[in-house]
Amino acid sequence: MKKIVLFTFIISTVVFPQDDLKEKEKALKASTDITFEANKELADNDFIDAEVNYRRAISKSNENTAAPYNLGNAYYNKESFSEAFGRFKEAGELTSEKPVKHKAFHNMGNVFMKNKEYAKAVEAYKEALRNDPSDEETRYNLALAKELLKKDKENQDK
């Protein structure tokens, strides 16, 4: 009797991780498909349906960093900067890929610039450059943020 229980336990530990992996792959595929649909809707200027589908994609899989990133871009273009920031932050936290982290932090810096939060923009651009030191646009934005921060401090001291 003990051998059967032990045997069943061994099989269950071997089978379940594979099932979990298949389910995660299936969820990622569904999420990616929904993101693709949302991208098309956004290209057709259908923000409402695109937003709904990006949110659906995000709920399907947390391994799809394109969905929160693209939703962040959509919000940014609608000037909903706090929502955009949250989605860029989510994309940056979900990924270990440097190019995605770079874009997410770069765009968080852009949100901070729009909100005139120059010190935070400086830090976001620095983090973006840690993930892609060769990006000249981020380097330029960092210099601009530093200059605006300096002017802001000078105006406060007057």
Describe this protein's structure.
- It is elongated, with a radius of gyration of 21 Å.
- It is mainly α and 158 residues long.
- It has two domains: 19-64; 79-158, Serine Threonine Protein Phosphatase 5, Tetratricopeptide repeat (Alpha Horseshoe), CATH 1.25.40.10.
- It has helices at residues 2-43, 47-60, 66-77, 81-94, 98-114, 118-131, 136-157.
- Give me the strand/helix succession: HHHHHHH
Output the radius of gyration: 21 Å
Which band does the percent of strand residues land in?
Answer: under 5%
Q: In this structure, how is the largest beta sheet organized?
A: none
Q: What is the C-level CATH assignment of the largest domain?
A: Mainly Alpha
Treating each run of at least 4 consecutive H or I residues as one helix, how many helices? Answer: 7
CATH level-3 fold name of the largest domain: Serine Threonine Protein Phosphatase 5, Tetratricopeptide repeat
Q: Termini distance?
A: 85 Å
